[in-house]
Write a structure and sequence with these properties.
- The chain is an alpha+beta fold and about 500 residues long.
- The protein has a domain of about 180 residues.
- About 30% of the residues lie in helices and about 20% in strands.
- The protein contains eleven helices and 17 strands.
- A seven-stranded mixed beta barrel has the order 2-5-7-8-11-13-12. A four-stranded antiparallel sheet has the order 15-14-16-17.
């Protein structure tokens, strides 16, 4: 009888553990299935590095008409002969004025056709379009509007002129795009490379694809189709939800930059306390989905964050900044911009956004001048700069933040950001776009002709693509070596003062 009882107890015990085991497995499955619903990863699709795609090995068979034949996507734009507006002129007071179309609008109507979405086969200029849409187009940029080779802002529209989001070259569907035309960057790869590297590190960085452009039947060279930093439906781009007027915000995007004439500055805490000479503007939600009440709500919300960050107890666990930001995002932003010496970061074209999870994140933008590319005077490869820039000047005072930078940097230098990895990325990308670069130079002239002797000393003006490659590699080598030796000196910025203990408060 006792034996039977013991067997029964063992059976019950075994069943109990089996039930627990099944329950745990079921819980794991539920977490795996529903976790994305609880917290949204801002990357909807896996990062694609275009230059890693297979390309056709056989020579291109030229079309009968002798037109363009390439394994890069072809973007054909037809304006029906109308000049694309946006070239700057100057008034009597030497102020820049951006020209408009004949009807006074800042954009004109045009047609855009894209032939080819990948590089697995050759595409011909007279081939069938994979994507077609009416567009509104203008020149974009600030100083870059004066370059011989312009960049363009494009909005996809339907027949009624309403936004027409489409997937382009494998990137998530949206109606806003930039056709970036490399001009100052003689390697043509800085934005492509650093956006992609940042995209491997951070929740989001703009996706990019090389392409070749034909405007009104004329070849215009190598371009980079680039995602505009904005919200996006169904998790695309920043994954922010569209805000209707008079609604509460569910995420927003701000840009720190020079104030444009037609933009209203967001008078947040760091602005009205004169902690920055630059201005914040609301990039998302756009003006059509934002009234005065929502604008003020965003201003107050962001001011609350800045007040917390610039307070004496900013690093407290309970009431400090760590509950308001994705710390990893700020750490990675610091590293990628310091490594590349992207000196505009934290001043111009600086994007910060609040996600639907109520955490602030940084987003990279504009590496055109990175790695001492085109500053009039030599940019040293020594020293830090973001430690003195808005928001980071406070973050860097926190021992935990600086330590996370140091450890993350050491980890990345063993892999993604190692000198070997960076050199390989440069070599493979340049090999990938090599034929397109030759066609680009045939259109715009040699690198020496493009340089125009603007840099000091004169020896910095590059005279070939190979010289541009050498300059990029050389600067990354020197900068990386200096950071390897000096990254731990960041701790000096967060050294505790003797009186800090008196600022400690009980939570």
């Amino acid at each position: 009888m006792l034996i039977l009882w013991l067997k029964a107890m063992r059976f019950i015990t075994d069943m109990k553990y089996k039930i627990i085991g099944f329950t745990c497995c079921f819980a794991v499955i539920l977490i795996a299935v529903f976790a994305p619903l609880l917290y949204q990863d801002y990357r909807k699709t896996e990062r694609v590095h275009q230059h890693e795609q297979e390309i056709p090995q056989e020579p291109c068979t030229d079309p009968a008409d002798g037109g363009l034949c390439t394994y890069l996507p072809i973007v054909k734009i037809d304006t029906d002969g109308v000049v694309i507006p946006g070239r700057p002129i100057k008034d009597d007071g030497n102020n820049r004025i951006y020209t408009c179309a004949a009807d006074g609008e800042t954009t004109i109507a045009a047609q855009m056709d894209i032939i080819g979405n990948d590089s697995k086969e050759y595409h011909h200029a007279n081939g069938t379009a994979d994507v077609s849409s009416s567009i509104r187009i203008r020149m974009r940029g600030n100083s870059s509007r004066a370059f011989d080779k312009p960049s363009y802002a494009i909005r996809l529209v339907d027949k009624e002129g309403e936004n027409n989001p489409l997937s382009i070259m494998g990137m998530d569907a949206h109606h806003e795009w930039v056709l970036y035309g490399p001009w100052l960057d003689k390697t043509a790869i800085r934005n492509y490379m650093f956006y992609n590297l940042a995209g491997e590190m951070m929740s989001y960085a703009p996706n990019v694809r090389f392409c070749e452009v034909i405007l009104n039947g004329e070849y215009e060279g190598l371009y980079v189709m680039t995602e505009v930093i904005t919200g996006g439906k169904d998790g695309a781009r920043l994954g922010l939800r569209v805000n209707a007027k008079n609604s509460t915000f569910s995420g927003y995007l701000l840009r720190l930059d020079h104030q444009h004439a037609d933009e209203e500055a967001l008078n947040s805490f760091t602005t009205y306390t004169y902690k920055t000479p630059f201005q914040l503007q609301i990039e998302y939600p756009g003006s059509r989905n934002r009234d005065a009440g929502l604008t003020e709500e965003i201003r107050q919300d962001f001011s609350d964050f800045e007040k917390t960050l610039y307070s004496y107890d900013y690093d407290r666990e309970k009431h400090g900044y760590t509950s308001m930001i994705d710390v990893d995002s700020f750490v990675d932003y610091f590293i990628i911009n310091e490594l590349s010496s992207n000196a505009d970061a934290g001043n111009y074209s600086t994007y910060i956004y609040k996600g639907t999870d109520n955490l602030y994140r940084m987003c990279v933008w504009d590496f055109n001048n990175a790695c001492n590319n085109y500053f009039e005077e030599e940019l040293p490869y020594t020293g830090f700069f973001l430690n003195n820039r808005l928001w980071f000047e406070m973050l860097i005072k926190d021992e935990d933040f600086t330590e996370r930078i140091i450890q993350r940097y050491h980890s990345l230098r063993k892999g993604l950001l190692s000198e070997e990895s960076l050199y390989r990325y440069i070599d493979e990308t340049l090999d990938f776009i090599g034929p397109a670069l030759e066609r680009n130079d045939a259109r715009w002239g040699s690198v020496e002709q493009q340089a125009k002797g603007l840099l000091v000393p004169v020896s910095r003006n590059l005279d070939s693509r190979s010289a541009a490659e050498g300059q990029l590699k050389g600067y990354l080598r020197n900068r990386g070596e200096w950071l390897d030796e000096n990254i731990e000196t960041l701790r000096q910025y967060s050294a505790s003062s003797r009186v800090k203990q008196y600022n400690e408060v009980n939570d």
